[in-house]
Amino acid sequence: MMGHAGMAATAVRHLRAAGAPTAVEPLPRPALRAVQEDERAPVDPAEFRRVLGHFPSGVTLVTTVDDTGPTGFACQSFASLSLDPPLVAFMVARTSTTWPRIAAAGTFCVNVLGAGQGPLCRAFAVSGADKFAGVDWTPAPATGAPRLAGVPAWIDCAITAVHTGGDHLIVVGRVEALGAEEEDGEPLLFHRGRFGRFSDG
């Protein structure tokens, strides 16, 4: 079975093959176009965001730790992928400065946020800030990636594949460990640009 170092090497090789740097600099936007320069774009980007914003999602913080310390980013595009083997996936912008560190580490922990953790999410959404200032965390049992205190659930993973998806990358991770609070807590939801809470209808 491929170890974490091998998985990191696989991710980094993918980045190099895509012509992207493996340092912490933002990755360049891909030279991909659906239409030619003289054609009308099929979908207006602002309209795309507005319409897709009607699809509510949960909110997670994807974290890792490397030689320089812990890092992470806020992520709505997280999903379970496979039961056998146990796989999850998240999408990350190619311009992310956090992704190269996750790729180099080869591991990550998905921290599922609860309804009262909107401020924590906002702190992790700020680029360049010390996102872990005042944040309690412990190493996840399999990979050592940060497991944040007070989250309703966490999924500890090792990277197994990275795929291109336009201006994003699709990252697949094998679940090595996971856990959830015994008592059900309300999830933090995101809908049309705002945080919200779940209520029974």
Q: According to CATH, what is the topology? A: Pnp Oxidase, Chain A
Major beta sheet, strand line-up = 3-2-6-9-10-5-4
Oligomer: single chain
CATH top level label: Mainly Beta
- For the record, the count of structural domains works out to 1
The CATH H-level homologous superfamily:
Electron Transport, Fmn-binding Protein, Chain A
Low-confidence stretches: 20-24
CA-to-CA gap between the ends?
46 Å
Shape: globular
Protein name: Monooxygenase
InterPro entries: Flavin_Rdtase-like_dom, NADH-dep_flavin_reductase, Split_barrel_FMN-bd
GO molecular function, one term: riboflavin reductase (NADPH) activity
Family: Belongs to the non-flavoprotein flavin reductase family.
Description of the structure:
This protein is of the alpha+beta class. The protein has one domain (4-19, 58-197): Pnp Oxidase, Chain A (Roll), CATH 2.30.110. 18% of the residues lie in helices and 37% in strands. It contains four helices and twelve strands, in the order ααβββββαβαββββββ. The protein has helices at residues 4-17, 45-52, 99-105, 118-124; strands spanning 57-58, 60-66, 69-75, 78-82, 87-93, 107-112, 137-139, 146-148, 153-165, 168-180, 188-191, 194-197. The strands form three sheets. Strands 3-2-6-9-10-5-4 form a seven-stranded antiparallel beta sheet. α1 crosses α3. It is globular, with a radius of gyration of 17 Å. The N and C termini lie far apart (46 Å). Residues 20-24 have low confidence and may be disordered.
